[in-house]
Structures are given as structure tokens and as C-alpha cells.
Amino acid sequence: xxxxxxxxxxxxxxxxxxxxxxxxxxxxxxxxxxxxxxxxxxxxxxxxxxxxxxxxxxxxxxxxxxxxxxxxxxxxxxxxxxxxxxxxxxxxxxxxxxxxxxxxxxxxxxxxxxxxxxxxxxxxxxxxxxxxxxxxxxxxxxxxxxxxxxxxxxxxxxxxxxxxxxxxxxxxxxxxxxxxxxxxxxxxxxxxxxxxxxxxxxxxxxxxxxxxxxxxxxxxxxxxxxxxxxxxxxxxxxx
Length: 239
Ligand SMILES: NC(=O)c1ccc[n+]([C@@H]2O[C@H](COP(=O)([O-])OP(=O)(O)OC[C@H]3O[C@@H](n4cnc5c(N)ncnc54)[C@H](OP(=O)(O)O)[C@@H]3O)[C@@H](O)[C@H]2O)c1
Hints:
Layout: H1 8-29, E1 39-43, H2 48-59, E2 63-68, H3 71-84, E3 95-98, H4 107-118, E4 123-126, H5 141-169, E5 172-177, H6 190-210, E6 215-220, H7 228-231
Helix pairs in contact: 1-2, 4-5, 5-6
Bound molecules: NADP nicotinamide-adenine-dinucleotide phosphate (NAP).
Residues 43-44, 46-50, 68-70, 73, 100-102, 127-130, 150, 177, 179, 222, 224-225, 227-230 line the site of NADP nicotinamide-adenine-dinucleotide phosphate (NAP).
């Protein structure tokens, strides 16, 4: 993770353990379908949890499509991953697709670009997200809209654009990185908690609707991980 502060080693170990857990869940949930050579799409892969997921999946021999808004930051991740390849496991140079999740009009085009990389998507990890801290009385409605665009509308638009290709193949796994705040709302996190509650509800509905097509849906709800997102100063001491 970038910009680790003092005591970051423990947080890095905890975050890596979380990503390894995610990796193991995916392996367990896809019996008979080893992740090696699978096509895994990760949004928000330029930093934090997404970058760490990219590192673990790359080392496992996965064909990665890394997504983000900043081409230069993503290219740096690709270079780091390529340089870290040891040779003991066949690895693939990750592809990148640049788009802004908050601009849902561009998501269909981005989904087409993602599908062009390898012709299919086995696992979609909806990880990108933004945070917000502030009391409700001082929070303009536009802030709630901005957080919802990135954390809720973007991921659901991308999921819906990629779903038909998964349904055609009767195979796929959709993962979303929500938050413990998608289950419990706490003061000063109204926009963020609301966006993650909406995310939890949407993907719970989706799981029930598409199970019959052979597609799995997993919502991950992490607690605190020290990253750029969580490193912003807390408001009145709330995380
Ligand atoms: N850190 C925690 O304590 C914690 C706890 C629970 C859940 N989570 C969740 O974990 C996920 C990852 O967060 P993180 O902590 O790893 O934060 P991070 O280091 O800030 O990473 C966020 C990523 O999202 C991307 N992103 C942000 N807005 C975007 C947009 N409009 N379009 C496309 N990409 C966008 C960023 O890419 P660019 O800026 O390069 O485009 C960046 O790669 C988030 O969904 C967050 O809610 C985090």
C-alpha cells in the first residue's frame, strides 16, 4: 500500500492477509476452476487494496485487466508487477483500461474494452471507491451524489455491462469490496455508509437473481485498512 505511515508494517501484514483471504475465498468458490489463467478485472487497481489484490493475483498466474482513472499510475503498477515476476510461475503482463466510474455514460464503452482484452471475464472485482467524512448538517447534497456515483452507480453499471457475457458462458464471479459500514452506519460517515449499504443491497439482490445462471456474487466487508482512502484525517475521531 502507498503512503504507509508509522506502524504501517502491521497494517500491511493485515491488508495482505485480507487479500490472501479474498484469493482463497475465490479459489474455494470456483471449485474445479483454478484461478491460474483466469481473467480477473480489478477496478481501482492503482493503489491500496486494489493494487495489493493485483499483486497477489498476478503472482498466481492470472490474466489481469487493471482499471483506474489515471493511466500513468496504472502503468507504474504494471511495471512493478512485471518486475516482480520470479519466473517460477508463468505470469501475464496486465492489461489496463482507463475510465472514470463516476461517469456512468462511459462505462459501457469501458466494458467493451475490457472484454476485448481476453474475450471474457471470469472474475470482476469492483474495488474502486472514495470516502467522505463530515457531519450531515454541513454536507451538501452534491457530496452525497458524488459518493453514490463512484461507490454505487459506477460499480453497478460496470457489473450490468459485463453480466450478459458471463451469462452467455454460464460462468463468472462478481466480487464487490463494500465495507463494514455497508452493514453498520456510524456518525459522520453518512454518504459513505449510505453508498455501501446500497451496494450491499444491490449485490444481495443480484446474487439471488443470477445464481440460476451459474454466476457467483460475493460482497466483502472489510474493517479498517490503512490506505490513501483511510489515511485522510478523521472527523471528531470517528473512522
Ligand atoms: N481502507 C479502508 O479502511 C477500507 C475499509 C473498508 C472498505 N474499503 C473499500 O476498499 C476499496 C478500496 O479502497 P482503498 O482503501 O484501497 O483506497 P485507495 O487506496 O484510495 O484506492 C481507491 C482506488 O479507487 C480508484 N478510484 C477512485 N475513484 C474512482 C473513479 N471515479 N473511477 C475509477 N476509479 C476510481 C482510485 O484510482 P485513481 O484515483 O487512480 O483513479 C484508487 O485506485 C474501496 O471501495 C473502499 O471503500 C476500504
